[in-house]
Amino acid sequence: MPKLSNLTRYSTFAAVVALALLSMIALLIWSVWFILPFMAFSALSLLGLHDVRQNSHSVLRNYPVLGHIRFLLESIRPEIRQYLLEDDHDEEPFSRDARSLVYQRAKGQEDARPFGTKKRVYEGGYSWVTHSVQPKHIENTDFRIDIGGKDCTKPYSASIYNISAMSFGSLSGPAIKALNLGAKLGGFAHDTGEGSVSRYHKEGGGDLIYQVASGYFGARSEDGSFDPEKYAATATLPQVKMIELKLSQGAKPGHGGMLPAGKITAEIAEARGIPMGQDCVSPAAHSAFSTPIEMCEFIGQLRHLAGGKPVGFKLCIGHQREFMCMVKAMLKTGIFPDFIVVDGAEGGTGAAPLEFANHVGMPMVEGLTFVHNTLRGAGIRDEIKLGAAGKIVSAFDIARALALGADWCNSARGFMFAIGCIQAQACHTNHCPVGVATQDPLRARALDPVHKSQRVARFHHNTLKALGEMTGAAGLSDPSGFLPHHLMQRQSDRSMVQGNKAFPYLPNGFLIDDNAADHGGYKDRWSRASADSFNPTEYV
């Protein structure tokens, strides 16, 4: 005989069975209204019976009915943490402070904070911008950067803050339309992501950066290879202002993807140029090129087919030598991209395996610093504009990226917050509670594109206004004047370091000058890089 204490785990199941029987008796004797508790407790009794018979979940088998509370609490754990337990500064992945700032600026609400900073200013990692005793007032905060190199015939005057790559398919149609309408209202650009130009982008009418990824959506032949004619038809659309070749993304660098056939709607198939009823594969690597020189030649082809529009590439830094291979190929072929976007490993709109999200790819600060200094070392930094992406949602985030070498910044999740994202972290489930990251038409209809587009434009405007105020406080007339020495960072509880010591600009041309000194192993790595192959001559 099992001990009585061992049977208590079945007490909840026994209780609902007993209540079902009592409700049935009451239904037969007293009132028809007892049919409601009878149905409820009968359903729970059947659930308990199923629990003790199934063999998939040990918790349910040992604790029938009651065990479901465990799964319920687990399902709402992110919401419980976010709304009840999380500190204002816990970054999971964005802090409440950061999200609140975006919401307030998007809604046009007061974003000033009383009673001083909540930051622990004497702890390691705290950073700040140095200010001047002669601050300046900046009236026009529509800060812009001209993108287009020597081979570009149609340069683009871009805002220094734009919407980063998010595909239609990952985001709902109304979300894409809201973002693009907002970009048009605010006069900034919207990256299409790898899903190509959809009808929702076109309905918005805002400036687009057309991303060409390894799946070649919008430029794809039937076998999945690159189709020059289809690419040209998309790239020459008047709404498309620049073309971005995606090598990797911060969320899952070095990882491909697959959109199951069941998730491919007619609208997604139309945008991507893929058939219905078949799984859609995005390979990890491009098939149009395999060497650094071939990559440069492909960039030249993309620019020619686009009618001279700016063409660049986006990557999250992995093997540093491989980026140096690309730079050597630029020098050898004379074909330079018009821009490079450095995505940090902290990027995250794309759902990724946990190992990739946590442990693959270089964070934005180090990646941007490396790319900037490699281009300086090769003597071509002035030929190429640099964009930066990776948790950039505030004026300080932008100022820091510009100081480290960027010419402009992109944000994905910041603009997602602007259209109503609540960081439910259900993007990959198709169950987004606010209609942003879903293809469920009933969920998506909760998002009003016209109303949310106003928030997108307002968030952009108010963020650049704050950047103007921070720029003026530093004694500068334009945020492009931010340099590393405008940053200070606390390394430990008792020491601080100036930005030009932590993130120095390395000398122009030192990589191609045999007599120049090495800096941090750059020249050693440069010596092992080849324009002809990405393959290493030895492990680095």
TrEMBL record:
Transmembrane segments: 12-36
GO molecular function annotations of the record: glutamate synthase activity
Keywords: Membrane, Transmembrane, Transmembrane helix
Pfam families per the UniProt record, alphabetical: Glu_synthase
SUPFAM superfamilies: FMN-linked oxidoreductases
Gene Ontology biological-process annotations: glutamate biosynthetic process
Name the record gives this protein: Glutamate synthase domain-containing protein 2
Taxonomic source organism: Sulfitobacter guttiformis
